[in-house]
Amino acid sequence: MKPWLVFAILSAVFAGFTSVIAKLGLTGISGELGLAVRTMFVFVLVFVFAVFAVPGRDWSALSAGNFWWLGLSGVTTSLSWIFYYKALKDGEVSTLALIDKGSILVAILLAAFVLKEQITWRTLAGGGLIVSGILLLARK
Fold first, then answer.
1. What is the Cβ-side half-sphere exposure of residue 46, based on CA atoms within 13 angstroms?
2. Where are the domains of the chain?
3. Minimal CB count within 10 Å: which of 20, 27, 50, 138?
4. Sign (positive/negative) of CA torsion 54, 80, 105, 10?
5. Average of per-residue pLDDT values in the chain
6. What is the pTM of this model?
7. What is the rounded CA–CA span in Å between residue 103 and residue 48?
8. d(C-alpha 23, C-alpha 102), whole Å
């Protein structure tokens, strides 16, 4: 199995834990405060990881373009997390997590139009199944 695939699977597993654990952590506090506390932990852990895992030459290779695109990604991540935590406070994790995965449609479209990635019938079929699942759960 290719390393990126192992990392993707591990990412999905940890993401699944994240929502349930976060829901438990929101007991008695607002979603906004919960997100702020979570983000502090994320910042510290990721920065410490980078200090030890990133070679010095990578740090010196950072360009203005890297900062721009990664900064913009940070803004969109923050907005996603803000709305996710607002929904998580009162919503069901099982429904919210599936709706959140609807982001695959945005990612597929942007990958095709911005990155010029080829979209296969399997990608479209998988995206369609996810959308079907979202609609099925949304109709309770």
1. 6
2. 3-100
3. 27
4. positive
5. 91
6. 0.82
7. 29
8. 20
